[in-house]
Design brief:
There is one protein chain. This protein is mostly helical. It is about 80% helix and about 0% strand. The longest helix has 26 residues. The N and C termini lie far apart (about 40 Å).
């Protein structure tokens, strides 16, 4: 229940960001580069970052995609560092499988020509995954967990969006 509500919160906020960020960016007069930076920092899901960037302009799309992919690459060293820092004394270090598969997918995509059918298969697999996650989210699950995680997610999302926007506007 908690995982379903957490993922539901993230997906809901990503969908909101996809439609709300571009008008806010225009209203604030953000350049395409500024908007791309903001979208890449403040929106969690890569596909929503790409969608918001594309809605804002070509340069926003390129900037948002580059920064978001760079952020995603940080998963690898951070996962290894976290594993080493928080492991128990004398315990064998377990490397998370999703990190190994992430690195393998990046390497394959970089060095091995992929058949044109792979993106189509990946889109269908992602749709199936999102459907399965969504099917685990029900009103009863939300009731059991309560509104606090959703409210916390909204507060943190707004805080990140506002702080990152402030840094981009006044520091960057």
């Amino acid at each position: 229940n908690q995982m379903s509500v957490a993922l539901g919160t993230i997906f809901t906020l990503n969908a909101v960001a996809l439609f709300v960020f571009p008008p806010i960016g225009h209203a604030l007069g953000l350049s395409e580069i500024q908007f791309g930076e903001w979208a890449a920092i403040a929106i969690h899901d890569t596909s929503s970052v790409v969608g918001a960037g594309a809605a804002y302009g070509d340069q926003a799309l390129q900037t948002a995609t580059l920064i978001k992919c760079t952020r995603a690459l940080w998963i690898v060293p951070l996962a290894f560092a976290t594993t080493l820092v928080y492991r128990e004394k004398g315990a064998k270090v377990a490397i998370p499988w999703f990190i190994v598969l992430f690195v393998a997918a990046m390497t394959l995509n970089t060095f091995v020509p992929m058949p044109k059918v792979i993106p189509t298969i990946a889109k269908h697999a992602m749709s199936a995954t999102l459907f399965l996650i969504g099917s685990g989210l029900s009103l009863s699950a939300v009731r059991r967990v309560g509104p606090k995680p959703f409210i916390q997610g909204i507060i943190l999302w707004m805080l990140i969006a506002l702080v990152s926007l402030g840094v981009i506007l006044f520091v960057g």
